[in-house]
Amino acid sequence: MNSSDIIAILVAFVCYLAMMIVIGGIYMKKTNNTEDYFLGGRGLSGWVAALSAQASDMSGWLLMGLPGAVYALGTGEAWIAIGLFIGTVFNWVVISGRLRRYTIRANNSLTLPEYFVNRFHDEKKVLLLVSSIVIAIFFLVYTASALAAGGKLFNSVFGVDYRIALAIGAVVILAYTFMGGFMAVCVTDFIQGMLMLCGLLIVPIVAYFMMGGENVLPLIEQSGVAGGADSYMNIMHDGGQPLSFVSILSQLAWGLGYCGMPHILVRFMAVKDEKELKKSRVIAIVWVLISLGMAVIIGILGRAYLFPTILGTEGATSTENVFIVMITKVFTEHTHLAFIGGLFLCGILAAIMSTADSQLLVTASAVSKDIYKGVAKKDASDAKVLRISRLTVIVVAVLAFLIAWDPNSSIMGLVSNAWAGLGSAFGPIVLMSLFWKRTNFAGALAGIISGGLTVIIWDYIPFVGGQTLGSATGIYSLLVGFIISILLIVIVSLCTKAPSSEMLKEFDDVKNGNVG
After folding, report:
1. Residues 369, 118: Cα–Cα separation, whole Å
2. Tell me: the pLDDT tens digits for 268-306?
């Protein structure tokens, strides 16, 4: 790129980032209490709820991690996308409506840990403390993945040192999340979701016609993919080798994580009414179907379009930068529309920011509302809780920044670990609390602890000849943790005292739609 192209892209970035901060400032004036800060007063419209949920879900993984994996290994990596699509549909169709009703019936719960406490009548707030700690641990890793993606974006586009780029992204995300809370995050996520969708649709279509559709497979073959172009395009192959049943099952298991993602579930809790929720459901499912499909296509087309450059080889940028390099080439080398290219690069930044801001906010709510007000200082005023929330946002951002400090941090690896931890700890108990009347406090506690611990043991402790169980077996920790958590919820609930008549009545009220 020449200097004028870099300036044009930089102007696009500055305009975009300034707009996000202005939105934060606007909503700071409208944030009067903790319900406003954490749930936007339960006033989300269908469009905002849908796009903010999906944008906050997908992160830099959608535009960097997934296309990079497909670029490097082939369409066999698409099984993760298929699992995530199934999980999205299940989440919106099965969980969203009942969770919204139950959080209202359960003493107007504002956060997921608070919902667990109210659902299981946990007077000692044990579930509040345990689930808040789980959120703080795994969201630190998740937020770090988003900041690492931001650092790689700025480094790749502007040549800025990775760590300086990391700091720029962290400061901007911190600014509007700190100021505006939930509504600022949701409105910015809505804008970011639209921007992501435009980039995902337009860039690969332009690249396809630029190189000619008939040239795609020959160029993939020439690029030296393992097993040749036929294997690369075979969804049953990965890296030139046939996929095993375990590999396919592990990739599909990513979809299980949706049931336990606090930053997604909180959108269901915040939707204005059931009518808006039904609208959100359709919008979200269509958005995620298009987005996941186009992310896979970007990986495939990138392999052909960028040839003879092969990403990930010595001297070349990471495979996770395939979309960034495609945008730069399309809009600077070929069309000289650098400002437009800058806007599409902002789509990648949008994916990163829309996840990091939501994770910061959920972690802040876990620490300030659930641990500080719920356990440590129950008589704390709303103003005090808001101050603690904003302080937590700063602390978490700094810790995530330190975790992402290594330029070689894998976005895919960081997301995988955090997704598994949250999905295993919370997914099973969210499902069972909504649909199995016999679930009790002891079962809930056993499920959360066993799910989270399984992932930590499976992914981090080298039991097998210096390898972790995950590396040795090839089985994704989320699948193992989810199954163990559900089994313990059922076994412990059946072996301990049955829920009270009051709890059973609340369950029936939600089931029958009587939430007041």
Report:
1. 14
2. 777 777 777 888 888 889 888 998 999 999 999 999 999
Cα→Cα distances 256→109, 113, 139, 176, Å: 24, 19, 17, 31
Residue showing tokens 């949250």: 422
What are the C-alpha distances in Å from 370 to residues 110, 118, 283, 450? Answer: 10, 12, 32, 21
Query: Nearest Cα to 260, choosing from 95, 413, 45?
Result: 95
Residue 331's nearest CA partner among 206, 145, 458, 171 is 206
φ, ψ of residue 318 in degrees (nearest 5): -65, 150
Q: What does the pLDDT look like over 337-376, one tens digit per residue?
A: 888 888 888 777 766 766 676 677 777 777 776 777 766 6
Distance (Å) of CA 167 to CA 122, 133, 149, 412: 40, 26, 12, 20
> Of all helices (H) and strands (E), which one includes residue 242?
strand 241-242
Burial of residue 319 (number of CB atoms within 10 Å: 0-12, 13-18, 19+): buried
DSSP-derived secondary structure letter, 419? H
Pairwise CA distance, residues 301 & 201, whole Å: 13
Three-state SS at 464: strand
| First-to-last C-alpha distance (Å) of the chain | 60
The HSE-up count of residue 26 (CA atoms within 13 Å, CB side) is: 12
Burial of 29 (0-12, 13-18, 19+ CB in 10 A): exposed
Q: What is the pLDDT of residue 54?
A: 66
Any bridge partners for residue 44, and if so which? 271
Are the CB atoms for 433 and 439 separated by under 8 Å? yes
The residue type of 87 is G
pLDDT, residue 189, reads 67
Q: What's the pLDDT at 271?
A: 73
Other beta carbons within 10 angstroms of residue 496's beta carbon come to: 12
Do residues 327 and 199 touch, judged by C-beta distance below 8 A? yes
Report helix, strand or coil for 452: helix
Q: Which residue numbers in the chain have pLDDT < 70?
A: 1, 24, 27-60, 175-189, 192, 314-317, 334-335, 350-351, 353-355, 357-358, 369, 374-376, 409-412, 516
* Closest-CA residue to 44 (of 168, 181, 144, 248): 181
Q: How far apart are CA 147 and CA 169, in angstroms?
A: 7
CA distance 91 to 461: 31
| pLDDT tens digits along 254-267 | 999 989 988 788 77
Q: Which residues contact 331 (CB under 8 A, 6 or more apart)?
A: 337, 338, 340, 341, 342, 344
